[in-house]
Design goal:
The complex is a heterodimer.
Chain A lengths: L7 E11 L10 E12 L4 E5 L6 H8 L7 E6 L2 E2 L5 H10 E4 L3 H4 L6 H11 L4 H14 L5 H4 L9 H13 L5 E5 L7 H18 L2 E6 L2 H7 L2 E6 L2 E7 H6 L4 H9 L48 E4 L2 E3 L9
Parallel strand pairs in A: 3-8, 3-9, 6-7, 7-8
Antiparallel strand pairs in A: 1-2, 1-4, 4-5, 9-10, 10-12, 11-12
Chain B lengths: L2 E10 L6 E11 L4 E5 L6 H9 L7 E9 L2 E2 L5 H7 L4 E4 L3 H4 L6 H11 L5 H14 L16 H13 L5 E5 L7 H18 L2 E6 L2 H7 L2 E6 L2 E7 H6 L4 H7 L49 E3 L2 E3 L7 H8 L12
Parallel strand pairs in B: 3-8, 3-9, 6-7, 7-8
Antiparallel strand pairs in B: 1-2, 1-4, 4-5, 9-10, 10-12, 11-12
Helix pairs in contact in B: 4-5, 5-6
Classes of the chains: A alpha/beta, B alpha/beta.
Chain lengths: 326, 335
């Protein structure tokens, strides 16, 4: 992977929010994303894994330039996102697409499906003659075989699985090279969820898409992504091939995440969760942010933040335990 | 048997005629057991759970069947008697814990009021019990003075469980108690339920759509589809050797950490419109193994300590082999 020119380069990326100036938590600094660096190879599918509030959605929004970073830089296909405006920004918007979490909210209820799909084409200023073939192609990618009758229907006439396939078709219609999918199946029913996962995996392979899947579900990431980035309270704590992460997680937080996944195999016995029950969160900036919940905590963890270092090829971990003794 | 539901029918009036959200459902919950009720949204699992506690959505009517709790038919009880049972013997943790808690009162006040009014405890005893309940579900009792919005989702779910446990019920019905929670929090809530069962001997009916949750926590499972319980049995058997094709599909629809990269099973099609359900087996239109005979309703058949409603249950072993192939579930036309 190192030999290829990376498609996405993220360096020291940070996004901080200032808490509202109310009576509670006034002006408190929230580090949603804190000094995150990684690269994505072209065509790579990567999972962003973390609990709610870990900054995974903020990171996804930064990658699509839907919000501006506080510090750091993002380069996609050789182009820095900082200061992008005008025509280059428009070109970037065509190249990079978001797949929404909730298909019931993502489509305008007053538009027909045809209009929903046409909207990005109109925004891109494509002539009408080019629109038809692109719509047909996108419908085929989303595995709609009776696409043409669908075009005259409204979102309320479709099931959740069909709606999510429309959302995916719309995201792919401008032939992007980069997609970010934020919890793409969490709003869907069990029996249709598998179909959407199969579809996402199929199209990203077929089109060679560079894809980022945001999820809190490791089994889903395991299915879709060859590599996984684990976020904890805004920081990247582990970056590993997904298989290695599932089989031998190195960071204690990753270990807890893997242990917490309920297995559908009833023969797998229940192991205690390797976590210290704690609700006290140490302020970020004084040592490892996982220290309060870490079962393997050492004195150094409370004072010094561990750097993200390579422990194996393509495998980085931010933990004092992984470091050779100083 | 602590709870026995037999042939239950729950109807909703709709402009297009009555809709039977639950149609002839059976369910058994042994004492001190954790029973999972699984199915996709709209299959009637929440309606069934609400029928058991006797707090149904507006307009819903039970038109047939029985619900027996410790041998007593709940449906035949006078309203006042039913109310006495509710919360004292059968408590409920609703799907959205935020809606279970009144946002303008401190959680401790809500808990103490419940203990004083329904539990007839004096103020000091209620205070002590509230502290004990918070410790039981793993929350610092110092937080009794907090308002619901000051808790995270997982903590609120624990508060809702503490409220449900306040009167030491025999049966706790928890509707999707861990859905939308992070895996670690989810695991902690499930562990709390398992521990409560161990310590207090309460039975739990866990309504969920997540097979993984069932595999982790439950002793028995009932699978619902389109208003009917289509299969019921011990969790290990039902998940390991499912007898109903719908259960077979569900079990293979989830990515598994150990399962690797095999193609997931997608059950083609959508659940039926309950205003016009299929005449025979309700799963037949989506079932890859449906035969002509599936056009009439399959009877509920008991084998050992499990039950299933499928015409081809004798062939379950060979159907399971076929169901393991994702290709057998796909249809050429998905549109």
């Amino acid at each position: 992977m190192k030999a290829e020119t990376p498609f996405v380069v993220v360096e020291h990326l940070a996004k901080h929010y200032r808490g509202p100036g109310g009576w509670r938590g006034a002006g408190r600094l929230l580090r949603a994303v804190d000094d995150v660096s990684f690269t994505l190879a072209p065509g790579e599918s990567v999972g962003l894994l973390g609990e709610s509030g870990s900054g995974k959605t903020t990171l996804g929004r930064l990658l699509l330039k839907l919000t501006e970073p506080t510090a750091g830089s993002i380069t996609i296909a050789g182009q820095s996102l900082a200061g992008l405006r005008g025509q280059p920004l428009k070109a970037f918007r065509r190249q990079a697409q978001l797949i929404f979490q909730n298909p019931f909210d993502a489509l305008n209820p007053r538009f027909t499906i045809g209009r929903c799909l046409r909207e990005p084409l109109l925004n891109a200023g494509l002539p009408r003659a080019e629109q038809g073939p692109l719509i047909e192609r996108a419908l085929a990618l989303a595995r709609f075989t009776r696409g043409l009758e669908l075009l005259d229907q409204h979102p309320h006439q479709l099931s959740g699985g069909q709606l999510q396939r429309v959302v995916i078709a719309r995201a792919l219609i401008l032939q992007p090279r980069f997609v970010v999918a934020d919890e793409p199946v969490s709003m869907l029913d069990v029996s249709v969820r598998a179909g959407i996962l199969n579809l996402l995996r199929g199209v990203s392979r077929a089109l060679g898409l560079t894809a980022v899947y945001i999820s809190h579900d490791l089994s889903l990431v395991r299915y879709l992504c060859s590599r996984t980035l684990v976020l904890y309270r805004g920081a990247l704590v582990e970056d590993a091939p997904t298989k290695a992460l599932c089989n031998a997680p190195r960071h204690p937080y990753s270990q807890a995440l893997v242990a917490a996944v309920p297995s559908s195999d009833p023969a797998q016995r229940r192991l205690p969760l390797p976590l210290v029950a704690s609700t006290a969160e140490a302020p970020v900036g004084s040592g490892c942010r996982f220290a309060a919940r870490c079962p393997l905590v050492m004195p150094i963890c409370r004072t010094e933040e561990p750097p993200l270092v390579a422990v194996a090829p393509n495998h980085r971990v931010a933990c004092h335990l992984g470091l050779p003794a100083a | 048997m602590l709870l026995e539901v037999e042939d239950l029918v729950v109807e909703f009036p709709t402009p297009g005629g009555p809709l039977r959200a639950v149609e002839g459902a059976q369910l058994q919950v042994p004492a001190a057991a954790l029973v999972g009720l699984v199915g996709e949204s709209g299959c009637g699992k929440t309606t069934l759970a609400r029928a058991i506690i006797g707090v149904m959505a507006k307009g819903a009517r039970i038109t047939r069947g029985s619900i027996r709790f410790e041998g007593r038919d709940l449906l035949g009880l006078p309203a006042a008697e039913r109310r006495r049972l509710r919360w004292r013997d059968i408590a409920f943790v609703p799907q959205s814990s935020m809606s279970a808690l009144d946002p303008v009162y401190r959680v401790g006040d809500q808990l103490r009021r419940l203990l004083r009014v329904r539990g007839s405890l004096a103020a000091p005893a209620a205070r002590r019990r509230a502290v004990a309940l918070f410790e039981l579900v793993g929350i610092d009792p110092a937080r009794l003075g907090n308002y619901p919005h000051q808790f995270s989702g997982g903590m609120r779910q624990r508060v809702a469980i503490a409220l449900a446990l306040a009167l030491e019920p025999r049966l706790l019905i928890a509707d999707e108690p861990v859905t939308a929670l992070d895996v670690i929090v989810q695991r902690q809530i499930l562990d709390a339920l398992l521990e409560l069962r161990q310590r207090l001997g309460i039975a739990v009916l866990l309504v969920t759509h997540d097979i993984g949750v069932v595999a982790y926590a439950c002793d028995r499972v009932a699978v619902m589809y389109a208003g009917q319980v289509v299969e019921e049995g011990p969790a290990a058997t039902l998940l390991g050797q499912p007898a109903h094709p719908y259960s077979m599909g569900l079990a293979r629809a989830f990515p598994d950490l150990a399962g690797g990269a095999a193609e997931l099973v997608q059950i083609a099609g959508d659940p039926p419109d309950l205003r016009q359900p299929p005449a025979g087996c309700r799963f037949a239109p989506r079932c890859p193994f449906a035969l002509v005979g599936c056009g009439s309703p399959p009877p509920w058949q008991l084998r050992a300590d499990a039950g299933v409603a499928c015409w081809r249950q004798d062939e379950a072993a060979s159907l399971r082999l076929a169901a393991a192939e994702a290709a057998n579930w796909s249809r050429p036309d998905e549109g």
